[in-house]
Amino acid sequence: MRLRKKHFAIPEMHENPYVYFDGEKNKGHWAEVFGNNNPIYLEIGAGKGKFTIESAKLHKDINYIMVDLETNALIYATRKILEEELTNVRAMPINAENILEYFAEGEMDRIYINFCNPWPKLRHQKRRLTYPRFLEKYKVILKEKSQIYFKTDDLDLFEASLEYFRESGFSELVADFDMSNEEYPQNIVTEYEKKFRNLGIPIKFGVFEHYN
Predict the structure, then answer these.
(1) Is 193 marked within a binding site?
(2) 98 is in an annotated binding site
């Protein structure tokens, strides 16, 4: 669903010191940006940011970067960084296509992909954030033996993604077709996930480890 255009979003984010429109300059220097050597976790397609915001509040010893091309959603996430005084969070309004322009080899300790667009039409599937051409880029910026955490409501996307990860040489650590909150008590339920659960749609969850 496309959000209504928020004309205030980009000007407001330009005033936010935790948002980068020129993040390329930080490539290879994100530890310096955060001012420490804590692990850096990246959420691709963060939307309104609840997952990263809640994670960052729980884990102050981890640095988080959230990226999303949709500024109409990301504006709400970036406001929260300031409101919650989360010095361990940064944000960038970027296209995942260009991820290698912003992060150096082995700079990320983990990647999260939560409820991304399933792009069901065959001609569009190469746009999926779990498609092999994206996975090859993630492999560059991930440290060896780091993981990608993936959640979706879409069965076709999940089944296809399992194959994508295998084809790209990832080791499959978890492939759960019905993720229960009881089994994963630390799971952060976003508004999308809550909606799908209320509709009785099983949440699919996977963890995939990267080896060079």
Answers:
(1) yes
(2) no
